[in-house]
Write a structure and sequence with these properties.
By secondary structure, this protein is α/β, with parallel strands linked by helices. Helices cover 41% and strands 16% of the residues. The chain is built from 15 helices and 13 strands. Strands 2-8-7-6-5-3-4 form a seven-stranded mixed sheet, with helices on both faces. Strands 9-10-13-12 form a four-stranded antiparallel sheet, with helices on one face. It has a two-stranded parallel sheet with strand order 1-11. The chain is globular, with a radius of gyration of 21 Å. 40% of the residues are buried. The structure holds pyridoxal-5'-phosphate (PLP).
Length: 364
Protein backbone atom coordinates (compact mmCIF):
# COMPACT_ATOMS: atom_id res chain seq x y z
CA UNK A 1 0.00 0.00 0.00
CA UNK A 2 1.43 3.45 -0.85
CA UNK A 3 2.07 5.64 2.18
CA UNK A 4 0.19 8.83 2.90
CA UNK A 5 1.84 12.14 3.87
CA UNK A 6 1.46 11.59 7.59
CA UNK A 7 3.14 8.17 7.46
CA UNK A 8 6.06 9.54 5.45
CA UNK A 9 6.99 11.86 8.31
CA UNK A 10 7.29 8.91 10.69
CA UNK A 11 10.18 7.36 8.83
CA UNK A 12 8.05 4.44 7.64
CA UNK A 13 8.98 5.47 4.09
CA UNK A 14 12.39 3.92 4.75
CA UNK A 15 10.74 0.48 4.60
CA UNK A 16 11.97 -1.21 1.39
CA UNK A 17 9.62 -0.29 -1.49
CA UNK A 18 9.04 -3.96 -2.41
CA UNK A 19 7.71 -4.55 1.12
CA UNK A 20 5.51 -1.45 1.02
CA UNK A 21 3.76 -2.71 -2.10
CA UNK A 22 3.03 -6.13 -0.57
CA UNK A 23 -0.25 -7.04 1.01
CA UNK A 24 -0.07 -8.84 4.37
CA UNK A 25 -1.11 -12.51 4.27
CA UNK A 26 -4.66 -12.54 5.57
CA UNK A 27 -6.26 -15.49 7.27
CA UNK A 28 -9.99 -15.55 6.69
CA UNK A 29 -12.06 -15.24 9.89
CA UNK A 30 -13.62 -18.62 10.63
CA UNK A 31 -15.52 -18.12 13.90
CA UNK A 32 -18.55 -20.38 14.02
CA UNK A 33 -17.85 -21.83 10.57
CA UNK A 34 -17.00 -25.38 9.57
CA UNK A 35 -13.39 -24.82 8.61
CA UNK A 36 -12.50 -26.56 5.36
CA UNK A 37 -10.09 -23.95 4.01
CA UNK A 38 -6.63 -24.79 5.35
CA UNK A 39 -5.90 -28.51 4.90
CA UNK A 40 -6.04 -29.19 8.60
CA UNK A 41 -6.51 -32.71 9.91
CA UNK A 42 -10.01 -32.58 11.50
CA UNK A 43 -9.26 -35.16 14.19
CA UNK A 44 -7.87 -34.53 17.64
CA UNK A 45 -6.13 -37.15 19.78
CA UNK A 46 -7.78 -39.89 21.83
CA UNK A 47 -7.97 -38.96 25.53
CA UNK A 48 -5.36 -41.48 26.73
CA UNK A 49 -2.89 -40.09 24.18
CA UNK A 50 -3.51 -36.51 25.33
CA UNK A 51 -2.93 -37.53 28.94
CA UNK A 52 0.29 -39.33 28.09
CA UNK A 53 1.48 -36.27 26.15
CA UNK A 54 0.65 -33.87 29.00
CA UNK A 55 2.62 -36.08 31.39
CA UNK A 56 5.65 -35.76 29.16
CA UNK A 57 5.38 -31.97 29.01
CA UNK A 58 5.44 -31.70 32.80
CA UNK A 59 9.20 -31.80 33.11
CA UNK A 60 10.20 -29.75 30.05
CA UNK A 61 12.55 -27.10 31.51
CA UNK A 62 10.95 -23.89 30.29
CA UNK A 63 13.55 -21.74 32.06
CA UNK A 64 16.21 -23.18 29.73
CA UNK A 65 16.69 -22.54 26.03
CA UNK A 66 15.67 -25.48 23.86
CA UNK A 67 18.24 -27.90 22.43
CA UNK A 68 19.64 -25.70 19.67
CA UNK A 69 20.49 -28.62 17.40
CA UNK A 70 17.29 -30.58 18.06
CA UNK A 71 19.41 -33.72 17.98
CA UNK A 72 16.99 -35.98 19.86
CA UNK A 73 14.08 -34.90 17.68
CA UNK A 74 16.17 -35.50 14.56
CA UNK A 75 16.86 -39.02 15.81
CA UNK A 76 13.11 -39.63 16.10
CA UNK A 77 12.54 -38.17 12.63
CA UNK A 78 15.20 -40.45 11.13
CA UNK A 79 13.60 -43.48 12.70
CA UNK A 80 9.97 -42.80 11.78
CA UNK A 81 10.36 -40.99 8.47
CA UNK A 82 12.87 -43.30 6.73
CA UNK A 83 15.29 -40.46 6.13
CA UNK A 84 18.16 -41.60 3.89
CA UNK A 85 21.42 -42.27 5.77
CA UNK A 86 23.77 -39.99 3.87
CA UNK A 87 21.69 -36.85 4.35
CA UNK A 88 21.38 -34.07 6.92
CA UNK A 89 18.22 -32.59 8.46
CA UNK A 90 17.34 -28.91 8.92
CA UNK A 91 14.53 -28.13 11.36
CA UNK A 92 12.17 -25.21 10.83
CA UNK A 93 9.26 -23.46 12.50
CA UNK A 94 6.98 -25.01 9.90
CA UNK A 95 8.22 -25.48 6.35
CA UNK A 96 7.34 -21.83 5.82
CA UNK A 97 10.47 -20.96 7.77
CA UNK A 98 12.54 -23.44 5.79
CA UNK A 99 11.44 -21.77 2.56
CA UNK A 100 12.58 -18.47 4.02
CA UNK A 101 15.96 -19.87 5.13
CA UNK A 102 16.60 -21.36 1.68
CA UNK A 103 15.70 -18.08 0.04
CA UNK A 104 17.82 -15.98 2.39
CA UNK A 105 20.81 -18.16 1.54
CA UNK A 106 20.20 -18.15 -2.20
CA UNK A 107 18.75 -14.72 -2.98
CA UNK A 108 21.82 -12.48 -3.29
CA UNK A 109 22.02 -9.50 -5.67
CA UNK A 110 20.02 -10.28 -8.79
CA UNK A 111 19.07 -13.74 -7.49
CA UNK A 112 16.09 -15.37 -9.17
CA UNK A 113 13.60 -17.97 -7.95
CA UNK A 114 11.25 -20.02 -10.08
CA UNK A 115 8.18 -22.20 -9.58
CA UNK A 116 5.18 -23.30 -11.60
CA UNK A 117 1.94 -21.35 -11.24
CA UNK A 118 -0.34 -21.93 -9.51
CA UNK A 119 1.63 -23.31 -6.63
CA UNK A 120 2.14 -22.72 -2.91
CA UNK A 121 1.87 -18.95 -2.28
CA UNK A 122 4.73 -18.81 0.23
CA UNK A 123 7.36 -19.40 -2.47
CA UNK A 124 6.50 -16.08 -4.07
CA UNK A 125 5.79 -14.19 -0.84
CA UNK A 126 9.11 -15.02 0.78
CA UNK A 127 10.97 -14.40 -2.47
CA UNK A 128 9.62 -10.85 -2.26
CA UNK A 129 10.65 -10.55 1.40
CA UNK A 130 14.25 -11.34 0.54
CA UNK A 131 14.23 -9.05 -2.49
CA UNK A 132 14.69 -11.83 -5.06
CA UNK A 133 13.17 -11.80 -8.53
CA UNK A 134 10.42 -14.38 -8.82
CA UNK A 135 9.44 -16.11 -12.05
CA UNK A 136 6.52 -18.46 -12.51
CA UNK A 137 5.66 -20.75 -15.39
CA UNK A 138 1.97 -21.58 -15.92
CA UNK A 139 0.96 -25.21 -15.55
CA UNK A 140 -0.85 -26.86 -18.45
CA UNK A 141 -4.65 -26.84 -18.24
CA UNK A 142 -4.58 -30.41 -16.83
CA UNK A 143 -2.19 -29.08 -14.09
CA UNK A 144 0.79 -31.01 -15.43
CA UNK A 145 4.19 -29.31 -15.74
CA UNK A 146 4.81 -27.52 -19.02
CA UNK A 147 8.26 -29.05 -19.29
CA UNK A 148 9.43 -27.09 -22.35
CA UNK A 149 8.35 -23.80 -20.81
CA UNK A 150 9.93 -24.72 -17.47
CA UNK A 151 13.24 -25.65 -19.09
CA UNK A 152 13.25 -22.52 -21.24
CA UNK A 153 12.57 -20.33 -18.20
CA UNK A 154 15.33 -22.09 -16.24
CA UNK A 155 17.83 -21.50 -19.07
CA UNK A 156 16.74 -17.88 -19.48
CA UNK A 157 16.62 -16.78 -15.82
CA UNK A 158 19.15 -19.20 -14.35
CA UNK A 159 17.28 -19.36 -11.01
CA UNK A 160 19.21 -20.10 -7.85
CA UNK A 161 16.18 -22.05 -6.56
CA UNK A 162 13.33 -23.93 -8.24
CA UNK A 163 10.39 -24.93 -6.02
CA UNK A 164 8.14 -27.87 -6.86
CA UNK A 165 5.34 -28.89 -4.53
CA UNK A 166 4.87 -32.66 -4.91
CA UNK A 167 1.87 -33.05 -4.83
CA UNK A 168 1.08 -29.49 -5.81
CA UNK A 169 -1.08 -27.10 -3.80
CA UNK A 170 -3.74 -25.93 -4.76
CA UNK A 171 -4.18 -28.38 -7.65
CA UNK A 172 -3.66 -31.60 -5.65
CA UNK A 173 -1.80 -33.61 -8.31
CA UNK A 174 1.62 -35.23 -8.41
CA UNK A 175 3.81 -34.12 -11.32
CA UNK A 176 5.20 -36.55 -13.85
CA UNK A 177 8.46 -37.92 -12.42
CA UNK A 178 10.27 -37.81 -15.77
CA UNK A 179 9.48 -34.09 -16.02
CA UNK A 180 10.69 -33.44 -12.47
CA UNK A 181 13.90 -35.39 -13.18
CA UNK A 182 14.54 -33.26 -16.25
CA UNK A 183 14.02 -30.06 -14.24
CA UNK A 184 16.52 -31.25 -11.63
CA UNK A 185 18.96 -31.99 -14.47
CA UNK A 186 18.74 -28.62 -16.22
CA UNK A 187 18.69 -26.50 -13.05
CA UNK A 188 22.03 -25.01 -12.24
CA UNK A 189 20.91 -23.99 -8.74
CA UNK A 190 18.95 -25.89 -6.09
CA UNK A 191 15.68 -27.76 -6.59
CA UNK A 192 13.39 -27.92 -3.54
CA UNK A 193 10.82 -30.73 -3.64
CA UNK A 194 8.08 -29.82 -1.18
CA UNK A 195 6.40 -33.02 0.04
CA UNK A 196 3.98 -31.44 2.53
CA UNK A 197 1.28 -33.98 1.57
CA UNK A 198 3.46 -37.09 1.65
CA UNK A 199 1.22 -38.88 4.18
CA UNK A 200 -1.61 -38.82 1.62
CA UNK A 201 0.43 -39.32 -1.55
CA UNK A 202 3.02 -41.97 -0.58
CA UNK A 203 5.36 -40.86 -3.34
CA UNK A 204 8.71 -39.29 -2.54
CA UNK A 205 12.02 -38.01 -3.86
CA UNK A 206 13.89 -39.15 -0.75
CA UNK A 207 15.61 -41.88 -2.71
CA UNK A 208 16.82 -39.35 -5.29
CA UNK A 209 18.63 -37.01 -2.87
CA UNK A 210 21.83 -39.03 -2.92
CA UNK A 211 21.77 -39.20 -6.73
CA UNK A 212 21.81 -35.45 -7.27
CA UNK A 213 24.01 -32.65 -5.92
CA UNK A 214 21.25 -30.08 -6.15
CA UNK A 215 18.13 -31.66 -4.65
CA UNK A 216 16.60 -31.22 -1.19
CA UNK A 217 13.22 -32.49 0.06
CA UNK A 218 10.97 -30.61 2.48
CA UNK A 219 8.40 -32.22 4.76
CA UNK A 220 6.14 -30.90 7.51
CA UNK A 221 4.11 -32.32 10.39
CA UNK A 222 1.33 -29.79 9.68
CA UNK A 223 -0.77 -31.69 7.17
CA UNK A 224 -0.52 -35.01 8.98
CA UNK A 225 -2.25 -33.52 12.00
CA UNK A 226 0.04 -31.10 13.83
CA UNK A 227 -0.53 -27.76 12.13
CA UNK A 228 -0.59 -25.96 15.47
CA UNK A 229 2.84 -27.25 16.41
CA UNK A 230 4.81 -25.60 13.59
CA UNK A 231 7.46 -28.13 12.68
CA UNK A 232 8.92 -28.61 9.25
CA UNK A 233 12.12 -30.34 8.18
CA UNK A 234 14.34 -30.30 5.16
CA UNK A 235 16.40 -33.30 4.12
CA UNK A 236 19.40 -32.81 1.87
CA UNK A 237 23.08 -33.30 1.16
CA UNK A 238 25.41 -32.14 3.95
CA UNK A 239 27.01 -29.27 1.97
CA UNK A 240 23.63 -27.59 1.42
CA UNK A 241 22.23 -28.19 4.91
CA UNK A 242 25.50 -27.00 6.47
CA UNK A 243 25.09 -23.62 4.77
CA UNK A 244 21.40 -23.34 5.68
CA UNK A 245 22.27 -24.08 9.32
CA UNK A 246 24.22 -20.81 9.47
CA UNK A 247 21.09 -18.80 8.74
CA UNK A 248 18.71 -20.74 11.00
CA UNK A 249 18.02 -18.97 14.29
CA UNK A 250 19.52 -21.21 16.99
CA UNK A 251 16.30 -21.58 18.97
CA UNK A 252 13.76 -21.58 16.14
CA UNK A 253 12.09 -24.78 17.39
CA UNK A 254 10.87 -24.40 20.97
CA UNK A 255 11.27 -26.94 23.76
CA UNK A 256 7.53 -27.74 23.86
CA UNK A 257 7.51 -28.33 20.11
CA UNK A 258 10.58 -30.57 20.26
CA UNK A 259 9.16 -32.69 23.07
CA UNK A 260 5.68 -32.86 21.53
CA UNK A 261 6.97 -33.78 18.09
CA UNK A 262 9.17 -36.54 19.51
CA UNK A 263 6.13 -37.87 21.36
CA UNK A 264 3.85 -37.66 18.32
CA UNK A 265 6.35 -39.40 16.05
CA UNK A 266 6.18 -42.43 18.33
CA UNK A 267 2.42 -42.47 17.71
CA UNK A 268 2.77 -42.39 13.93
CA UNK A 269 0.23 -45.18 13.54
CA UNK A 270 -2.50 -42.91 14.89
CA UNK A 271 -1.74 -40.30 12.22
CA UNK A 272 -1.43 -42.92 9.50
CA UNK A 273 -4.86 -44.30 10.37
CA UNK A 274 -6.35 -40.81 10.35
CA UNK A 275 -4.73 -40.15 6.97
CA UNK A 276 -6.21 -43.37 5.56
CA UNK A 277 -9.63 -42.29 6.73
CA UNK A 278 -9.15 -38.83 5.22
CA UNK A 279 -8.14 -40.40 1.89
CA UNK A 280 -11.25 -42.61 1.92
CA UNK A 281 -13.39 -39.54 2.64
CA UNK A 282 -11.63 -37.62 -0.14
CA UNK A 283 -12.65 -40.29 -2.62
CA UNK A 284 -16.23 -40.19 -1.34
CA UNK A 285 -16.39 -36.37 -1.61
CA UNK A 286 -14.80 -36.52 -5.07
CA UNK A 287 -17.42 -38.97 -6.30
CA UNK A 288 -20.23 -36.85 -4.85
CA UNK A 289 -18.92 -33.65 -6.48
CA UNK A 290 -18.49 -35.49 -9.76
CA UNK A 291 -22.10 -36.51 -9.66
CA UNK A 292 -23.12 -32.84 -9.66
CA UNK A 293 -23.36 -31.74 -13.32
CA UNK A 294 -22.53 -28.12 -12.43
CA UNK A 295 -19.13 -29.02 -10.94
CA UNK A 296 -15.88 -30.54 -12.16
CA UNK A 297 -13.67 -31.88 -9.36
CA UNK A 298 -10.03 -32.73 -10.09
CA UNK A 299 -8.37 -35.91 -8.82
CA UNK A 300 -6.21 -35.33 -5.78
CA UNK A 301 -3.35 -37.05 -3.97
CA UNK A 302 -3.75 -34.78 -0.95
CA UNK A 303 -6.31 -33.98 1.78
CA UNK A 304 -8.13 -31.40 -0.35
CA UNK A 305 -10.02 -31.28 -3.63
CA UNK A 306 -9.94 -28.52 -6.21
CA UNK A 307 -13.10 -28.18 -8.26
CA UNK A 308 -14.47 -25.90 -10.96
CA UNK A 309 -17.91 -24.39 -10.92
CA UNK A 310 -19.22 -24.28 -14.49
CA UNK A 311 -22.31 -22.11 -14.06
CA UNK A 312 -22.37 -20.32 -10.73
CA UNK A 313 -19.33 -18.03 -10.37
CA UNK A 314 -16.86 -19.36 -7.77
CA UNK A 315 -17.17 -16.17 -5.71
CA UNK A 316 -20.96 -16.58 -5.48
CA UNK A 317 -20.74 -20.23 -4.50
CA UNK A 318 -18.07 -19.37 -1.92
CA UNK A 319 -20.29 -16.70 -0.35
CA UNK A 320 -23.40 -18.88 -0.35
CA UNK A 321 -21.42 -21.59 1.46
CA UNK A 322 -20.26 -19.06 4.08
CA UNK A 323 -23.92 -18.13 4.62
CA UNK A 324 -24.56 -21.83 5.28
CA UNK A 325 -21.73 -21.95 7.80
CA UNK A 326 -18.98 -23.48 5.65
CA UNK A 327 -15.62 -21.95 4.84
CA UNK A 328 -13.63 -23.21 1.84
CA UNK A 329 -11.24 -21.28 -0.43
CA UNK A 330 -11.90 -19.46 -3.67
CA UNK A 331 -9.03 -19.55 -6.18
CA UNK A 332 -10.70 -17.87 -9.12
CA UNK A 333 -8.50 -14.78 -8.72
CA UNK A 334 -5.29 -16.85 -8.90
CA UNK A 335 -4.95 -16.94 -12.68
CA UNK A 336 -6.43 -18.47 -15.79
CA UNK A 337 -5.56 -22.09 -14.98
CA UNK A 338 -7.77 -21.77 -11.88
CA UNK A 339 -10.70 -20.12 -13.67
CA UNK A 340 -13.80 -20.45 -11.40
CA UNK A 341 -12.00 -22.92 -9.13
CA UNK A 342 -12.49 -23.52 -5.41
CA UNK A 343 -10.62 -25.75 -2.97
CA UNK A 344 -12.18 -27.74 -0.16
CA UNK A 345 -10.17 -29.49 2.55
CA UNK A 346 -11.43 -32.88 3.70
CA UNK A 347 -12.99 -32.75 7.16
CA UNK A 348 -14.72 -35.31 9.34
CA UNK A 349 -17.41 -37.47 7.78
CA UNK A 350 -20.07 -35.22 9.30
CA UNK A 351 -18.38 -32.00 8.09
CA UNK A 352 -18.03 -33.44 4.58
CA UNK A 353 -21.71 -34.41 4.57
CA UNK A 354 -22.67 -30.90 5.61
CA UNK A 355 -20.44 -29.45 2.90
CA UNK A 356 -21.93 -31.66 0.18
CA UNK A 357 -25.45 -30.95 1.35
CA UNK A 358 -24.77 -27.19 1.38
CA UNK A 359 -23.22 -27.25 -2.11
CA UNK A 360 -26.23 -29.11 -3.38
CA UNK A 361 -28.55 -26.48 -1.85
CA UNK A 362 -26.48 -23.59 -3.25
CA UNK A 363 -26.59 -24.96 -6.79
CA UNK A 364 -30.27 -25.74 -6.75
C1 LIG B 1 0.64 -26.23 3.80
C2 LIG B 1 1.86 -26.28 2.97
C3 LIG B 1 3.11 -25.97 3.51
C4 LIG B 1 3.19 -25.30 4.85
O1 LIG B 1 3.68 -26.07 5.79
P1 LIG B 1 3.97 -25.54 7.27
O2 LIG B 1 4.91 -26.58 7.74
O3 LIG B 1 2.66 -25.54 7.98
O4 LIG B 1 4.60 -24.20 7.21
C5 LIG B 1 4.23 -26.09 2.70
N1 LIG B 1 4.13 -26.47 1.42
C6 LIG B 1 2.94 -26.75 0.86
C7 LIG B 1 2.88 -27.16 -0.57
C8 LIG B 1 1.78 -26.66 1.62
O5 LIG B 1 0.59 -26.88 1.04
Amino acid sequence: MPLNKKQENTGVHRIRPEIQTLRAYTVQASDGLIKLDAMENPYSWPKHMRDEWLDQLRDVPLNRYPDASGSELKQHLRQTMNIPQQTEILLGNGSDELIQIVQLCLSGPGGAMLAPAPSFVMYEMTARFVGARYFSVPLCSDFSLDLDAMCNAIRKHNPSVVFLAYPNNPTGNLFDRAAVDEIIRVTNGLVVLDEAYYIFAHDSYYDQIERHDNLVVMRTLSKLGLAGLRLGFLVGPAPWVGQFEKVRMPYNVGALTQRTAAFALQKMNVFKRQAEFIVAERERVYAALRAMPELTPFTSQTNFILFRSAQMPAAVLFQKLVERGILIKNFHHAGTVLHQCLRVSIGTQDENDKFLQAVDECLR
